[in-house]
Amino acid sequence: MAVTADHIRDKLIKELAAVHVDVEDTSPNRCAASYKVLVVSPQFEGKPLLQRHRMVNTCLAEELKEIHAFEQKTLTPEQWEKQKSQ
Amino acid sequence: MNGLIRAGVSCLRTGAAHYLTRPAGGRVLSAPARFLCASADQQKDLGTMVKKDKVVVFMKGTPAQPMCGFSNAVVQILRMHGVDNYAAYNVLEDQDLRQGVKEFSNWPTIPQVYFNGEFVGGCDILLQMHQNGDLVDELKKLGIESALLDAEKESK
After folding, report:
1. Whether A31 contacts chain B with CB within 8 A
2. Integer angstrom CA distances of residue B133 from A45, B129, B137
3. How many angstroms from the chain centroid is the CA of residue B73?
4. Domains in chain B: how many in total?
């Protein structure tokens, strides 16, 4: 199974109930499959950063085996609204 | 360099030998069993390694010569805060460590940062902690005064 940006987005929306996901394929800048994601989910509410990142890592555990570099940003809907208005 | 090549060749040879002994039956279990044992030892070693120093970084390359942008970012952030005295382990020099630390931390990527034996996170997390000020507080808990605090005082 080839990992694609669409696949990553769909999975995060489905499994983490993400209300907004940006997936950037940064592979052209690097030597192998690389992605940068922004995940906005109410499930992150009240959870520290490390735990949020672990949730994303768990959700994409299979995909991460194929991915060389992975950057992530995890926000609650509230944080996302705040960031957008800045 | 020659040594490296030779080591590679001998590795291949050993691999082939194991493969050939498999059909014989008796030694089929020996390789996985040894692997499990080595891996248990390594997980124990990692437990010691992360506690030995206040700040521990598992990275690609060395602080003087990082071999990956994300590892470099971690080195630069620590440098900005005046943290020079930390243990850095180069996972590129040790494939077992590279895999072992991922299992140990239950974290899929390198670099990985530990404070006082506790897993802090990777590059993204350290960067966000740097940006939101948490890093200064976390360093204080370790008894390390961030150099950024000194810089702030001087500018006042």
Report:
1. no
2. 20, 6, 7
3. 14
4. 1
Please list every residue in chain B whose beta carbon sits closer than 8 Å to the beta carbon of residue A64.
108-109
Nearest-angstrom CA–CA distance, B91 and B101 = 9
If residue B70 lies in a helix (H) or strand (E), which one and from where to where? Answer: helix B69-80
Q: What is the CATH number for B95? A: 3.40.30.10
Residue A1 at interface with chain B, using a CB cutoff of 8 Å: no
Q: How far does B60 lie from chain A, in Å, by closest CA?
A: 12
A54 CB neighbours in chain B (<8 A) are 106-107
Summarised one tens digit per residue, pLDDT across range B97-147 is: 999 999 999 999 999 999 999 999 999 999 999 999 999 999 999 999 999
Q: Convert the pLDDT of each residue in B59-83 to its tens digit.
A: 999 999 999 999 999 999 999 999 9
Chain B contact for A53 (CB, 8 A cutoff): yes
Q: Is A57 on the interface with B (CB under 8 A)?
A: yes
How far does B120 lie from chain A, in Å, by closest CA?
7
Tokens of B142: 């370790």
Q: What is the CATH number of domain A5-85?
A: 3.30.300.90
* B113 and B55 Cβ atoms separated by less than 8 Å: yes
Q: How confident is the model at residue B149 (pLDDT cuts 50, 70, 90)?
A: confident
pLDDT, tens digit, for every residue of A29-57?
Answer: 777 889 999 999 999 999 999 999 999 99
Structural domain span for residue B89: 2-155
